[in-house]
Specification:
The chain is an all-alpha fold. The protein has one domain. The chain is 80% helix and 0% strand.
C-alpha cells in the first residue's frame, strides 16, 4: 500500500503550556489508533495463517485481496472532510481488517521467525524516525514532494517488475523503498503534529487523529514490507 495525502495546512498555535498538553494528548491518540490498527491487521493475518485452506484461497486470489483495502482507504482519504468522525473511524477499522487479510499470504512466503524479527526491527526504526520528526526544529515539508515522487517511482517500478520478475530490480526497489518510507515517517510525523490546533472541535480533532494514524500506519507497513523483502527468510 502506498500513502494517501490530505493537506490540512500548517496551523498557528498560541498559549504554549495549554498547547503542549493538548498536543501530547492528540499525538497519543494518533499513535493509539495506529497501534490498534496494526494490532487488528496483525491479529487477522495471524488467524488466517493458521488456516491453510483459507490462506491458500487468499493467496490464489492475489490481486483481488491486495486491492481490497483501497475500498476503504480511498473514501477515507478523499471524503474525510465530509464524513462524520464515526464514519471515519469505521472506514479506518475496515481498512485495518482488509489489510490484515491482504497481508496473510506473507506467511506462505516468509518464515514466522523472520517476520517477527523484521517487525521488531521496523518498529525500532519507525519509533526513532517518528521521534525525530516530532522533535526536530527543521522544516521537513520541502522534502514532501521529493518523497512523493519516490513513492510514485516505486509503484511504477513494482508494476514493471510484475512482468520482468527481475531480482535485481526488486532489490533496488526495496532499498529505495526503505529510504523513501524512512523519510516519510519523519515527514508525516511532523505533518500530523502540525495539524493540531487547540481550538478544534472534538469531531474535527478526532478525524485528524484517525487520518494521521492512517498515514503513519502506511509508513510503518511499507517500511516493514521493504525490510522484509531485504532481510526476510523465504520459505
Amino acid at each position: 500500500m502506498t500513502e494517501p495525502r490530505l493537506e490540512y495546512g500548517r496551523l498557528g498555535v498560541a498559549a504554549p503550556v495549554a498547547i503542549d498538553e493538548g498536543l501530547r494528548s492528540y499525538m497519543l491518540r494518533v499513535y493509539n489508533y495506529m497501534a490498534a490498527g496494526l494490532a487488528l491487521s496483525g491479529g487477522i493475518a495471524f488467524a488466517i495463517a493458521q488456516n491453510e485452506a483459507l490462506l491458500a484461497s487468499i493467496a490464489q486470489a492475489g490481486l483481488l485481496f491486495a486491492l481490497l483495502p483501497f475500498a476503504f482507504v480511498l473514501p477515507l482519504s478523499f471524503g474525510i472532510r465530509r464524513f462524520s468522525a464515526a464514519t471515519v473511524q469505521l472506514l479506518f477499522w475496515g481498512f485495518a481488517v482488509t489489510m490484515g487479510i491482504s497481508l496473510a499470504p506473507l506467511a506462505i512466503m516468509y518464515t514466522g521467525e523472520s517476520i517477527a524479527r523484521v517487525f521488531f526491527i521496523s518498529a525500532a526504526a519507525f519509533g526513532a524516525l517518528s521521534l525525530y520528526g516530532y522533535t526536530t526544529k527543521r522544516n521537513l515539508a520541502p522534502f514532501g514532494t521529493f518523497l512523493l515522487m519516490g513513492v510514485i517511482g516505486i509503484v511504477i517500478a513494482s508494476l514493471v517488475n510484475l512482468f520482468l520478475q527481475s531480482s535485481g530490480l526488486q532489490f533496488a526497489i526495496s532499498v529505495i523503498g526503505v529510504l523513501v518510507f524512512a523519510g516519510l515517517t519523519a515527514h508525516d510525523t511532523q505533518m500530523v503534529r502540525e495539524w493540531y490546533a487547540e481550538g478544534d472541535e472534538s469531531d474535527v480533532a478526532n478525524k485528524k487523529a484517525v487520518y494521521g494514524a492512517l498515514n503513519l500506519y502506511l509508513d510503518f507497513l511499507n517500511l516493514f514490507i521493504m525490510l522484509l523483502r531485504l532481510f526476510g527468510d523465504r520459505r
